[in-house]
Write a structure and sequence with these properties.
It is a single chain. The chain starts with a strand and ends with a strand. The protein contains 5 helices and 24 strands. A hairpin with a 4-residue loop joins strand 6 (41-50) and strand 7. By secondary structure, the protein is mainly beta. Strands 11-10-17-7-6-20-23-22 form an 8-stranded mixed beta sheet, with no helix packed on it. Strands 1, 5, 8, 9, 12, 13 and 16 form a 7-stranded mixed beta sheet that branches. A 5-stranded antiparallel beta sheet has the order 3-18-19-24-21, covered by helices on one side. The chain has 2 domains: 3-125 and 183-327, Immunoglobulin-like, CATH 2.60.40.3680; 134-181, no CATH class. The chain is 13% helix and 42% strand.
């Protein structure tokens, strides 16, 4: 009999650290394949490309058993939390597929099914939102419009239950109160797949990353000295002296901003061998004027904007966090 298990392509729903200022947005932490049971399949190679515009991941897997393995492959999107203080960077706040995820398996485009649930305090409120014609993506223009059109008695009940919140502000023309989505959206794409016995299978997926941004530099204060966040940034992004000198030089010419990209790599250790057979990471900083820092071993520059590292039998003991410093004119 064919083995049956569940494969999860995990955009694990870790929201990044809280924003440091009102003019900041936080990045989501997407990731790669997570296998809940991995006895029969090994990850032969992973080729990972990261930029502010696109993340591309190309895998080769090998079913090392003598039987085909039938799977349910799932791609959980990051949880999206609503609320008045919501500040997560979402590439597309209209589409259900808010990261623009696509996947190909052995050269065949996959059309996955989408399962979405809106949850408040552990309670599924999806049916109620759908019945009232409210789109499930919190913070989207369409959801906000539908909430504004709710009958007052329904809105009052939803406020009491925590499904929505009310936000009051003065935009210069007087005080206004608006209804805000307060639920968490949990989304997952999934499809059936088979890994044939004894042969490799290529899987690729693409998406637009959630890019955190800050006006100014979080790791430096306005007078150019290290901020309270400096040590945390240095550990997270492996900022070295050459990078910091380059930041000093660039800041003398003008205003700098941050772009932050996160990727969960540690899930790569869940396959049969516990390691990634051949691993290649390419980071593109986007413009020759930008500065980039991330942790890696043997990183080398391969082009005006690209940096690369390779490893054999790579054990993914830490996730990838990329910091891009951008001159304000960029």
């Amino acid at each position: 009999m064919k083995a049956l298990f569940v494969l999860c392509l995990a955009l694990i729903a870790f929201a990044a650290a809280p924003a440091h200022a009102n003019d900041s947005t936080a990045e989501l932490r997407p990731g790669g394949l997570v296998l809940t049971f991995s006895n029969g399949i090994e990850l032969v190679s992973e080729d990972l490309f990261i930029s502010a515009d696109e993340v591309r991941v190309d895998y080769v897997f090998h079913n090392r058993t003598d039987a085909d393995i039938d799977t349910i492959v799932a791609f959980p999107m990051p949880d999206l939390e609503g609320g008045i203080e919501r500040n997560i960077a979402v590439p597309d706040d209209v589409s259900d597929n808010f990261l623009g995820f696509t996947t190909v398996m052995d050269g065949r485009d996959i059309a996955p099914r989408l399962d979405q649930r809106a949850v408040v305090a552990g309670i599924d409120v999806t049916g109620e939102l759908v019945a009232r014609g409210v789109p499930l993506l919190p913070g989207s223009e369409t959801a906000d419009g539908a909430l504004a059109a709710l009958a007052d008695d329904v809105a009052a009940e939803w406020v009491r239950r925590g499904i929505i919140a009310e936000d009051s502000y003065d935009d210069g023309s007087g005080w206004k109160t608006v209804r805000v989505a307060n639920w968490t959206l949990r989304s997952a794409y999934w499809w059936p797949a088979t890994f044939p016995a004894g042969r490799p299978v290529a899987v690729s997926h693409r998406y637009r990353p959630s890019v955190g941004a800050t006006a100014g530099l979080v790791f430096r204060s306005y007078d150019g000295k290290p901020s309270e966040e400096f040590d945390a940034y240095r550990r997270k992004y492996c900022m070295d002296e050459a990078f910091l000198r380059a930041v000093d030089k660039a800041s003398a010419k003008g205003y700098l901003t941050e772009r932050r990209i996160a990727y969960v790599l540690t899930s790569g250790g869940n396959w049969a061998s516990g390691t990634i057979g051949r691993f290649r990471l390419t980071v593109d900083k986007g413009s020759p004027a930008n500065l980039v820092s991330f942790c890696g071993s043997g990183v080398r520059k391969t082009g005006p904007t690209r940096f690369e590292m390779t490893a054999q039998d790579h054990y993914p003991d830490r996730d990838i966090d990329v910091l891009i410093v951008v001159p304000a004119a960029e």
